[in-house]
Design a protein that fits this description.
alpha+beta, nine-stranded mixed beta sheet, about 25% helix
């Protein structure tokens, strides 16, 4: 398999190589776009409920964030429960906590029922404060957990070589190998007649008279009653371009010389925070460490984040060797909770997006929301995640920040020029936005010294892309669309490639 960037994740070499194309041209109840954990789990759940589905994936299963996750499955979230209580109320926080616990049980049930070998472990999470301010926040989190029934207690030692001022143990967590998990679910799905198309990009769609018509690059038209965007962010220019902010996080996997006593997860409360967890595969033990997040497209020297990550690793952990380093993308929602349910203004189009750093949990939880909505059943959980919601107190500041951020990039891209760069100054393996002969290009020189020229204008809303040297991609700083050096779309919300320019 492959991912949406140059760097290989820890999961890729161990993943089942899986190319599937099963399509019998029948009428479908639901088309699901995106074969990450959200789309695959949902396809299997809908099949179990007797619905006919077609799952469409632009590349291969796990190509996007599922192939680059750290595979935490948690009963708490980046938006802490004290914040959720403040913004949504205590009853909503209890509802969410119970749904998180049920999600972990759901994943475990799938693993047992389908005999999935995916390094699944249950463990505790050790959250700690490294200074007085963080410790105060930790007290607020502990109090909130005790209110809503998340089993948490203060402890005085943690199973990691990290210094701290105060720490809590949050019980009931889990972790796994995400690609082995979704590949086995896919195998069960297709074995039972589920339709699945890989290497198929959705180019356009139409919603008319209660029927969805999807146009792809390999099949002219496919129809269904319902459409689910399980693509990390819904495509096109809509309200979620403002309500979601794209971020990248950096990860390293380290092979350990000795076994650990038990699996465990940990994080501090810096902003951005550092996180780590143990992983066992076969007889080998690993440490997965991540952090140093930043807004997509806002950093020119993305390699620096890997250097900072490895400096942090070397200062805090002992290990045998580095086995993988990669970065991955996530979307931060305006009010801290995901948007799962009906696309606003549509009766038969559904979305699941805005997971922050909790994609394995919220991606799976989607199968506890959308199937009920398809059956005409609205639940308290679906109301909480309703994509039509607006929480002014919780989201107004974040929404404004993202509008300003995108606008700054748009104006800067269109009306100022930094420094004129000549084509012959670009090194092998390097990309730059350049101005040459009065025109602006996204230029990349490959290892054979050939120059690849693209229009830098993202086809989503017209921002200029920027070069990501660590992943060798062109990233849009406005809404997170990403493209390879040939201009091919890697991640939406754009639905088209960057325009090639003949050199």
């Amino acid at each position: 398999m492959k991912r949406d960037g140059k760097n290989k994740s820890f999961w890729e070499d161990q993943a089942i190589k899986n190319r599937i194309s099963i399509y019998d041209n029948k009428n479908f109840d639901t088309i699901i776009v995106g074969a990450g954990i959200t789309g695959v789990t949902l396809a299997k759940e809908l099949q179990n409920r007797g619905r006919s589905c077609l799952l469409i994936e632009k590349e291969n299963p796990g190509f996007g964030t599922t192939g680059g996750t750290t595979a935490h499955i948690n009963n708490f979230f980046d938006s802490s429960y004290d914040e959720i209580i403040k913004n949504f109320g205590e009853e909503s926080a209890i509802l969410l906590a119970n749904a998180a616990k049920e999600t972990i049980r759901y994943i475990k049930q799938n693993i047992v029922h389908y005999h999935i070998s995916c390094d699944f472990n249950e463990c505790s999470y050790y959250l700690f404060g490294a200074d007085e301010k963080q410790s105060k926040k930790l007290d607020d989190i502990l109090e909130a957990h005790q209110k809503i029934g998340i089993e948490t207690e203060q402890i005085f030692s943690i199973p990691f070589s990290l210094t701290f001022e105060k720490a809590i143990e949050i019980k009931g967590q889990a972790q796994f190998h995400p690609l082995r998990y979704i590949n086995k679910l896919l195998k069960e799905y297709t074995k039972n007649g589920g339709a699945f198309l890989t290497e198929t990009q959705v180019k356009d769609f139409e919603n008319k008279d209660g029927m969805i018509t999807v146009i792809t690059d390999t099949h002219s038209m496919i129809t269904s009653k319902n459409l689910v965007w399980a693509t990390h962010i819904p495509p096109g220019n809509n309200r979620f371009s403002v309500l979601l902010a794209p971020y990248r996080s950096y990860v390293a996997t380290l092979k350990l010389a000795n076994p650990v006593k038990s699996m465990a997860q940990t994080a501090d409360l810096y902003d951005p925070y550092h996180y780590a967890r143990y992983h066992k595969s076969g007889s080998d033990y690993f440490l997965i460490v991540g952090g140093f997040d930043h807004k997509t497209g806002d950093e020119n020297d993305t390699e620096k984040h890997f250097k900072d990550l490895m400096k942090y690793v070397d200062e805090n952990f002992k290990y045998k060797e580095v086995v993988a380093k990669w970065s991955s993308q996530f979307y931060l929602s305006a009010d801290g909770l995901p948007y799962i349910g009906k696309m606003p203004g549509e009766k038969n189009i559904y979305i699941s997006t805005g997971f922050t750093g909790n994609g394995m949990t919220f991606g799976t939880m989607t199968s506890m929301v959308i199937p009920d909505l398809l059956d005409g059943k609205e639940t308290e959980l679906s109301k909480l995640f309703d994509p039509s919601r607006i929480k002014p107190v919780a989201s107004a500041r974040n929404v404004l920040d993202e509008v300003v951020n995108a606008s700054v990039h748009f104006v800067k891209d269109k009306f100022t020029v930094d420094k004129i760069e000549e084509l012959n100054e670009i090194n092998k393996g390097e990309g730059r936005i350049i101005k040459h002969d009065g025109k602006t290009f996204a230029a990349y020189r490959d290892e054979k010294s050939e120059i690849h020229l693209l229009s830098p204008v993202c086809p989503h809303t017209g921002c200029n892309v920027v070069w990501n040297p660590s992943e060798v991609t062109w990233d849009c700083p406005c809404h997170g669309s990403r493209f390879d050096v040939e201009g091919k779309l890697l991640n939406g919300p754009a639905m088209k490639d960057l325009k090639k320019i003949d050199d």
